[in-house]
Amino acid sequence: MIKNYLKITFRNIMRNKLFAAINILGLSVSLACCLLLFLYTSEQLSYDEHHGKRLVRMTSHLTQKSGESLNLGSSSMPIAPVIESEIPEIKNSIRILIPTLFGSKDLISYEDEAFYIDGGVVTEPDFFEVLKYKFIRGSAEQTFPHNNAVVLDREIAERIFGRDNPMGKMIKLNSLTGSQDYEVTGVFDNDSYPSHLKPTYVISRENALWQPFVRQFDASWVGNNLVYTYLELDERADIGTVEGKIHEIFIKNGGAEMKELGFSKEMHLQPIEDVHTSTGLEADSLQGKSLVFIQVLMTIGVLILILACVNYINLATAQAGNRAMEVGVRKVMGVTSKGLIIQFLGESFIIVFISLLFSILFAEMALPFFNYLVGDQIILSAENMWVIGKYLLMFLLVTGLLAGLYPAFYLASFKPAQVLKGKNKDKGVAALLRKGLVIFQFVISIALISSIIVISQQVDFIKSKDLGFDKNLKMVIPLSTDEAAASYAVLKQKFAKNSMIDNVTGAHTIPGSHILSDILAYKKGQTMDDALRIIRNPVEHDYFQLFDIQLLAGAYFDGPEKDTLVSKVIINKTAADRFGYTPEEAIGEILYFDFGTMNFQYRIVGVVYDIHQLSLHDEIYPMMFQLSDGKSTQNMVLDVNSGNYQQLLSSLESDWKQILPNTPFEYFTLEDHLDKQYASDKNTFDLIKYFAAISVIISCLGLYALSMFFAERRFKEIGVRKALGAEVKDILIMVSGDLSKLILIAFILSIPISIYGMDRWLETFAYRITPGVGTYLLAGCISIFIGWLTISYQSLRAARTNPVNVLKDE
After folding, report:
1. Among 152, 481, 569, 674, which one is least packed by beta carbons within 10 Å?
2. CA distance 673 to 503
3. Residue after which a domain boundary falls, among 370, 401, 426
4. Span 238-255, mean pLDDT?
5. Nearest to 187 by CA among 177, 196, 178, 199
6. Of 27-41, 225-239, 310-324, 378-392, the least confident
7. Cα–Cα distance between 133 and 195 in angstroms, integer?
8. Spatial separation of the C-alpha atoms in residues 613 and 520, rounded to whole Å
9. Ranges for the ABC3 transporter permease C-terminal domain (predicted)?
10. Cβ neighbours of residue 321 under 8 Å, at least 6 residues apart?
11. CB 736 within 8 A of CB 711
């Protein structure tokens, strides 16, 4: 029986080579896309599972009395040890401090080699008991035998020591708190498990250099949210109950501080497996993937697979007339409807199985390009063979049933008496379904084309938007070590003499980077209850001139700070507006900030136009520029006037080495730094662009096959019409008219879907375009043109048919 079914299937494939090729090609490409997308999304959603289900991260939700809120992935220093001691459901807790969160890099030195790294962590000694990593050397239980121990990631250890055993060797680490020697006591592998936290090194917060830095924040329960707090819960613990107990303890210890600062704060517990996709939190240096981005990819994969299944259903039902006689004869010979359903479903599964084999080849060929698009490394190997096999089996079952179920029941329903008399007609449910599926295909394709147009318009808007400062020909040199920061004045003087540089300035934080320093300031006659959150960035006095940030009122900084009691500041227009001042009224006013028993005062000397410190996803917030004290300059910015970067870099590095011979020279351009803010948007755009093209091609393959089938069925009618005098244009309109109407209906239906989807995406931008009707009309015109081009060949072929050739048998 099975052998007979296989023979029939392969005979049908050989008899209808073009239709079979279209089906197999469409399914193969779709399954390859689905395989890559599902492997990627499953990996992204499997992050941190190895740490265990009872591990959570504590997040902070701050709310001012004005209603402004702030969600942070971090929390304050003293909370963890207190709640661990008072809440029995908490088995263990660790706090993690990441030096690069403060804008610095770490310099690792060994013998004559030195290089910068970022991503190291300062934490509790039992870090590796709470978070699980695979150890290459040493063990998780004996990582910190003393406070000057360091545990290195495998890649860093190999870069420093090559193939030598690093255990017990001494390295020098110059970090946020200064330079110190550390003994290597372990090596772990960051890449052994998918984890949101991939430290390059781990050291203990009990280290002598770090103790004073850490302990200065031990008294603040509300402010200074600088650490990432992880809690290991008991098996029976309920997260909601634990959150309630944490809140009670927090109110008892931090309630008075909240009242002083004029805002409220709540802690929430986030399951460890959700951290990687929680990209909406501020003060979070952990680079995850947007859950929306992952969901978009999964949706695209499913839609592409559905489009290929639609092709199969359309072609199978369209060819029903060709197989009607076969069905009639087999039923007369005693084959039941159940037997026919099994046969046709078997054919579907065989075609899907063949497509699966091709899909693996296509996926392997496309893998390098796909990895480039998503910015990650997905592999097809024995390591993930179980996952690949699971998806292939799922694709076989789902696609085989989805594509084959309706055609099987439809073909098996033919009545022998009718089909053997040639009375079976392609009318009713099958014809309507086929038209509906063609419309569905092009609704999806047109919606994706609309997405491409809208996203490209938003990208152009981003590129052309005035950011409020001059970003062109700006080179940034990070001052990542304390020695480099202390040498700022000497370096500035040296670089300023270079004829290829027009100006040099410095800042704690450059445009395109998050500013962690903020205060709650209020104006005269108010209290902390009325305070406004304002971001504070220490800059050099010539910062505004170099970036060409225009004054609205007042003056730029004119030199070093002289009044130690009242600091001079320049605010942006948004800050002036929020305080209720016009730019002119703000000049000379004093802003106040209370912290405990201390009162800080800031005199406004200037108001500047708003600048986009962050991407266009974020609204412009109130900013305060404070004159740097010379110790907060972490970035040196050079205004370059030459396109000869090689000569300039050679000159700058030579000057750098004269002053800092043991510190590596690094640089980046401001434009490259700003572009990184839109890396995720670029990935989304590229993925939608390429998968939209694939969906259109798959839809057009089906449309081409259908147009050929319809044209062949009407050859005799066309011959009669031409014999009666019909012209080519009349035949062309007749043949292509029905399918063109379907594409037009799809265009109309796609408009609300496209508008809704793009509005949701554009809502992630605080500054965005507003797509007009022309955008969606253009997408529709493109789709109609592509669709008409697809069916035009068969339509022209039919219109040019010689009546003699098709009517000679009549």
Report:
1. 674
2. 20
3. 426
4. 91
5. 199
6. 310-324
7. 9
8. 19
9. 299-414, 691-803
10. 424, 426, 713
11. no
- Bridge partners (DSSP) of residue 626 are 538, 569
Q: Which two tokens stand for residue 475?
A: 């080179």
Task: State which amino acid sits at residue 444.
Answer: I
In a domain, 655, yes or no: no
pLDDT tens digit sequence for 561-611: 665 678 899 999 999 999 999 999 999 999 998 877 778 899 999 999 999
pLDDT tens-place string over residues 767-788: 888 888 888 888 888 877 887 7
Does the residue 474 lie in any domain? no
Instruction: Specify the amino acid at residue 53.
Output: K
Q: 232 lies in a domain?
A: yes
Residues in the chain: 810
Residues 224, 140 within the same domain: yes
| Strand (E) or helix (H) holding 399 | helix 385-412
Any long-range contacts for 716-721 (C-beta under 8 Å, 24+ apart)? 716/806, 716/807, 716/810, 718/798, 718/799, 718/801, 718/803, 718/806, 719/801, 719/802, 719/803, 719/805, 719/806, 719/807, 720/803, 720/807
Q: Tens digits of per-residue pLDDT, 385-420?
A: 888 888 888 888 888 887 777 777 766 666 665 555
Beta strands in 263-330 (DSSP E): 263-271
Note whether residue 227 is domain-resident: yes
Percentage helix, strand, coil, to 5, in the chain?
Answer: 55, 20, 30
- Which two three-digit tokens encode residue 456? 């490209």
Q: How confident is the model at residue 62 (pLDDT cuts 50, 70, 90)?
A: confident
What Rg value do the Cα atoms of the chain yield, rounded? 34
Shared domain for 144 and 253, answered yes or no, is yes
**Whether residue 247 sits in one domain with residue 318:** no
- In this structure, are 227 and 350 located in the same domain? no
Q: Tell whether 250 and 268 lie within a shared domain.
A: no
* Same structural domain, 314 and 379: yes
- pLDDT tens digit string along 735-752? 677 777 888 888 888 888
The residues pairing with 603 across neighbouring beta strands, listed in sequence order, are 568, 590
Do residues 283 and 405 both lie within one domain?
yes
Mean pLDDT of 669-695: 85
Spatial distance between the Cα atoms of 651 and 644, rounded to a whole number of angstroms: 11
Residue 180 domain boundaries? 66-261
